[in-house]
Design brief:
MetI-like fold, 14 helices, about 75% helix, flat
Amino acid sequence: MEVNKNNEKIENNEVEITTNVIQKPFMTRKRKKLIHDIIIHMVLILFGTMFIFPFLWMLTTALKTNSELLQGTDVLFPAVPQWENFRLAIKAVPFFLYIKNSFILVFFAVAGTLFSSTLTAYAFAKLEWPGRDALFVVMLATMMIPMQVLLIPTYIMYAKIGWLGTRLPLIVPFFLGGGSAFYIFLLRQFFKGIPKDLTESAIVDGASHFKIFIKIMLPLTKPALITVTLFTFMFVWNDYFGPLIYLSDPDHLTIALGLRAFQSQYSGRYNLMMAASILTMLPTLLIFFFAQKSFIEGITFSGIKG
């Protein structure tokens, strides 16, 4: 009996030692992972603070009084936030007219880009035709041509057809594939990631390519479409050069030109300038904030699938 008890004690000790040996490395790995996550989050918070600091500086400056502005960096935060500065900035120039004009251009630019880029990308990704790959390389090569190189010939062309002073030079090119070769490349990568079995089975069932494009491709490419929409919105909303060259009617000025006009009139009122700048960038921030999940999905999926 004593021998059996001794054997049981030895076995129990061996089990405890084995359990401790197994648990100790596990706890060590868990602790290392926790430390690694803490470091990563601290670095991300640091970089996030660095990136958000300019916006916070703009906001605090927009809420200061004129006397607080004269004190410079001695006053970092306003004693009493002056929300009235935003109302004064809006009343200083026809702000809502500029916003309306920008939204008009954004609407047609987004519609034209989605129309031309999706059709072109589908043709490059799913249709077989002679010279497809060579033409795709040529199209990508156009991304290396600076816009300033094409400015003079396009300006002469628009002048001869009577489009100068109108919104047409800022709208029509988007419907003709003039949005960007990058959008076509992005959507092509997304289309190529969709299995061929879907299109082949649809063709066997008698569906045309246009029906496949509308019923199958577009619903599956929602993240990529949102990504293209965001890029186009930000480009057109912040575009200063195009409206400056082609628009001459004051009633057609966009928010970028309006902000420049505001700066020239109120160059010394930094609080009003910062208030106007925040109002200008607010639509872009809101749209990106609510659509960032689809934006990241579109970029990630398009980059992985080739």
